[in-house]
């Protein structure tokens, strides 16, 4: 009997504890799943409440490609219209959707409708789950680079500002912090202004910036959305030259750095372009810098580089010979013409470098294009100089010759910047490295 008494006492204690535990559980509208559903409804209502939609600066790949302006108009609890400062395509549409026999026409489309939904995984998750060209372009896989630009199309909603004008997001793939900001005016007007800023500043350089007691040189990679900055700093009782690319995004007035440049306790966060497009003013309003254009703008024009033995120095020629040998030994063997086209031409959306391969020693066979997107900029006070940086590979052409292309890029970027100068008694010019003036210049002839 004493043993049974203990059992009943224990059962009673557990029963009372269990009742107390469940009395403290939320119920009705406070139950966890109900509360999350209400959060979903609240955010959805806020998204649809904006007359002009929302702006989002998409930051792919930890900011290595800068930020891209998108607009998003949430038209229902599942539909969203997305546009980008950068993306558009020519599409064929019916003249009269109600009359199939009325024929078709081509239009340049910049707005694309897709679906979105909310779910609950590590918080409230906003997913754009049907293909939206302006958004998924930056996450869509491409040959040789499975993540494309490594952009996000799923976001964790972290919080909403008290005035409901900003929704704070975190990219599920990149972890980058981003914001949906309520637009106060037509989204197309805002995106158009960012495009105007890009057109005015791509490939340009600025007069020196004074920051933290240092003079900072700045050149603008407009398509790569990076500032190439150079300055010196003291390190271990010596002076070290600092050269780095800093990602930015365009605004409707100028450029904003994703992470400010800080020197000596002072910060540089970006600048606004003047109406005449000849100067920029830093965002703190303290400095005005002159916009400088070089002689050779390879974001608008192009050149053909020749690496044949009689048109380049031994180092440049040997570099290209190695490139040819790399491709001959590749899984997809081919030969290359000893030339490369650099710049932006035709209908190319981005500046680039293109190499030309053919599959066997017979040059009459078909030539294949091997392209990589590059960006080009100028150097303040040096009208003949051009500097180069990467953007991203171009599809299967890169895939089939990626080892050879990477060898070419490694060398060209190592020797950049270059100076393009006349050659006496020749119509072509010489493109010479100025990266290391102490050594014999790496050079090749260019037709420009």
UniProtKB/TrEMBL annotation:
Top-level taxonomic group: Bacteria
Pfam families: DUF4302
Protein name: DUF4987 domain-containing protein
Upper classification of the organism: Bacteria, Pseudomonadati, Bacteroidota, Bacteroidia, Bacteroidales
């Amino acid at each position: 009997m004493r043993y049974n008494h203990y059992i009943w006492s224990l059962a009673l204690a557990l029963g009372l504890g269990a009742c107390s535990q469940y009395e403290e559980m939320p119920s009705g509208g406070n139950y966890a799943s109900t509360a999350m559903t209400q959060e979903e409804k609240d955010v959805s209502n806020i998204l649809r409440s904006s007359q002009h939609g929302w702006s989002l600066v998409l930051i792919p790949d930890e900011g290595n490609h800068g930020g891209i302006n998108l607009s998003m108009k949430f038209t229902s609890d599942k539909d969203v219209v997305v546009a980008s400062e950068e993306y558009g395509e020519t599409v064929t549409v019916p003249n009269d959707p109600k009359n199939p026999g009325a024929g078709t026409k081509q239009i340049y489309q910049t707005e694309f409708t897709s679906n979105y939904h909310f779910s609950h995984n590590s918080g409230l998750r906003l997913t754009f789950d049907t293909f939206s060209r302006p958004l998924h372009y930056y996450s869509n896989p491409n040959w040789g680079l499975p993540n494309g630009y490594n952009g996000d199309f799923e976001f964790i909603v972290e919080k909403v500002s008290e005035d409901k004008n900003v929704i704070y997001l975190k990219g599920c793939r990149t972890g980058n912090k981003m914001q949906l900001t309520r637009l106060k005016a037509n989204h197309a007007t805002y995106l158009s202004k960012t495009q105007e800023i890009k057109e005015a500043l791509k490939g340009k350089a600025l007069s020196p910036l004074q920051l933290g007691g240092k003079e900072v040189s700045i050149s603008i990679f407009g398509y790569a959305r990076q500032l190439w900055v150079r300055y010196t700093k003291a390190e271990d009782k010596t002076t070290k030259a600092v050269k780095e690319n800093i990602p930015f995004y365009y605004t409707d007035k100028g450029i904003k750095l994703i992470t400010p440049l800080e020197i000596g306790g002072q910060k540089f966060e970006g600048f606004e372009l003047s109406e005449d497009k000849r100067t920029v003013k830093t965002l703190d309003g303290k400095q005005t810098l002159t916009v400088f254009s070089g002689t050779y703008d390879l974001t608008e024009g192009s050149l053909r580089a020749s690496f044949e033995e009689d048109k380049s120095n031994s180092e440049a020629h040997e570099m290209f010979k190695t490139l040819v040998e790399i491709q001959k030994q590749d899984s997809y063997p081919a030969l290359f013409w000893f030339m490369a086209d650099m710049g932006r031409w035709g209908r190319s959306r981005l500046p680039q470098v293109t190499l030309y391969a053919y599959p066997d020693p017979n040059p009459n066979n078909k030539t294949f294009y091997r392209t990589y997107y590059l960006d080009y900029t100028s150097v303040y006070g040096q009208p003949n100089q051009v500097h180069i940086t990467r953007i991203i590979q171009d599809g299967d052409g890169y895939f089939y010759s990626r080892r050879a292309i990477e060898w070419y890029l490694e060398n060209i970027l190592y020797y950049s910047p270059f100076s393009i100068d006349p050659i006496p008694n020749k119509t072509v010019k010489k493109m010479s490295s100025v990266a290391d003036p102490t050594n014999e210049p790496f050079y090749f002839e260019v037709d420009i």
